[in-house]
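Below is a typical protein record.
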Amino acid sequence: MVRGLAVTYEIVTRNRAGYEHARPYTSEDSLAPGSIIVLDGRYWLVERVEQSRVEARPARYRLTLRHPDGREEAGAFRRFRADAPGIGHQFTTVEDGAPVSWAVVEQRLAHDDAGEPFLESTAERDYAETESLPDHQLEHAMEQDDEEAAGDTLERAAAAGLAVELVSLEAGQAPDWDEAGRFLESLIFEEIGEYLLVQSGVDPARDAQDTWLETVKQRLRDDLGSFRGDIEGDHDEIEEWDFRSGRVFAAIGPVDDESNPLSGYGWMCRLVDANVLGAAGFQRVLKASLLP
């Protein structure tokens, strides 16, 4: 990207129903296909740029390992967040019981089989494990005692082109549902970004503004109840496994399910974005410390 004078663009996004939403966006960086921008608390991936008109989609990425023999191993799609890996990001995986180190060397705009855009982050071996051990990505290293179950979940998501959302609890920690409820009820309008409004069923173009906050809170109440019932019940939507003496909870689904009230992936995305699960003690999983 070229840094220079500030440029104002018209950012065009679409909701689940296909309605376009255009809004101005000023940047000191020239936008290009593959750029990541933040609007209303949501990360967006630039797909097309035509002069000052920019088409963007909800940002997601996929981490792909390029092995020394040229073989490539793609992970599952993840929603782009501030902690997403960038160029130079180091992590380790486990091969034959030993840590091996990687670094992200390339990022580019790519499209899945359905034509939906994503950011492809490609990593190659950097052999840093001979000197020091960086953190590793959960997607590419699992504890031996539950490797098969976790691996099946992530491989299934990757093979189907679905996204995965992961949260964890530390060993011996129980969710603080009461604190999650108090946090949810204390939310104010200024803390809710436009994308969370849409995820929660609000139509800003049609619904009266004084109904928005209660609509979001009710959706989050339902999500929290559904999430809790599922992980304390039959795990129909949320999968769970032990990992590094703690517990990891996973939900998979298509990107559009971020707004689906009946989808476990939708429950988790909305509860993570509103930080309700954070209030309950869950942490969004990206990295985990490598045990000796």
